[in-house]
Amino acid sequence: MTPRADTGPPLAPLQLDVLRPFSELVHGISDRTLGSVYPEEAGGRPRLAAALGIPPEALVPTRQVHGTTIVRVPTPEWDGASGKDGLITAVPGVFLLGYFADCVPLLAYDPVRRAVGLAHAGWRGTLRRMAERLVEALGAAFGARPEDLRVGIGPAIGPCCYEVGAEVIAGVQAQLPGGEELLRPGRPGHAYLDLWTANRQGLLRAGVRPDHVGAAALCTACNVERFYSYRREGRLDGLFGAVIGLRKE
Known about the structure:
CATH topology: CNF1/YfiH-like putative cysteine hydrolases
Number of domains: 1
Low-confidence stretches: 1-10
Number of strands: 13
Strand content: 15-25%
Radius of gyration: 17 Å
Helix content: 10-25%
Mean pLDDT: 93
CATH class: Alpha Beta
């Protein structure tokens, strides 16, 4: 899948087609028009909540460290400490929030069990099978079946722009099935990595149906006027947010 630069007006919040059909579901991904969602005082978080029609205090944020720990909220295991790159819940009115500036947002929904999940997958999380871990966590906590899940892959740095070095190349080749197909040549000793396809393949390996996976196909580096991109900007200028949760009945 080849990304394209979006020359139209920014959308706030962006929705993913695979999740749109479910009226009981709230989801959205912010852009620069709403501002950075982290740190909290940046002001983007309440603006994103307002755009989605939910109270900002209902947002439950991840505590990202590029790992694969996924926790259920609200539970005693959730204590606000770091080390939680994924969250799951089946409680209406609890809205999961993740932060991104090139890494892959994964937003999952089971319309049968009425459970949602959100995960953050950079290259480390992708190599550690975060997509598969998210499917497994929803199954273990709520009995969600992979074939029932709908999963959206949000805006992230694309295979057009994500050039990586020897450490990442070796990890992809060693840890991901068919890893060579996820790489194309770059500068000497470098290659371009397709995180979108890597995470899609992980979801399919976990049993998610191909027609139940949808991708925004928006490269954050190509669309830096719309989304924050650490790689393109050479600094952390801000973080956009991804939110998913169930409406209160």
